[in-house]
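Hi everyone,

Forwarding the result from last night's run.
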Amino acid sequence: MERSNITISPVNELANIETRDMVYRDFLNMLNLEGHHKSYLQRIGFLNSTIDAQMYRSIPKKKIKRRLIANSLKRKYDLAGIPGFFQEEDWCWTFSAPRGFFIPLFDEQKRIQALSIHLDNEYNGITDMWFSSNGKINGTATKNWISKNNITSDTKTVILTDDLLLGNLIKAILNVPIISFSSISNSYQILKAIDNTNIQNIIFTVRSADNQNLDYIINRIFRDLIPLGYNLEIKYVRDYRDIFKDDFLTLYRLDKVA
């Protein structure tokens, strides 16, 4: 029997941003946002126009649907190099599918550089994970990207958050300078994002005081920032909708990072 030529690479190089943007846009346009996910986004404060513009999409639960979508994309693109996509034992393409919905991460040129997944149910203290296929057949690992908005050379104060969904909501509602991240392990990307600015104040916004990542973030990220002279503060919000309060940016409780 003749066998098709399948290239199995243990480590695929990440495709360039233009390719990732094209693949992910076509991919998301093949998906829908299920009613319970849309209701959740509306409940925490997103407008329908923002939900549409930010291209949130539910992850298909049925395996056959995931395979059909992936193989349709394969006819147009080389998926080796696109995080989240991989081949199964029968060489058919598919993609990672935990229960939840996709959060596209746009760069400053409005290109989709990566996809994050907001999980329906918290897993080991984690509510978000990257769309990645590291360790899979022809899979590709993603990077720990950051998202930034409205940061210019004159910016003096920036909000920092480890919750991409919260960052998107703040960006959509307040349009203030903000940097959102997930799973980064040092301050390099943050320092790069605020390089050549007048930023003096960094307000780290977290959803609750018992955030399990808080100590890790302070020890691994803020530890590098403190000696550089930035004014570092923590702001706790109990709920996503707290950002709608008139005093969100003025009359809040601040705990200095020690």
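The longest strand covers residues 112-123.

Cheers,
N.
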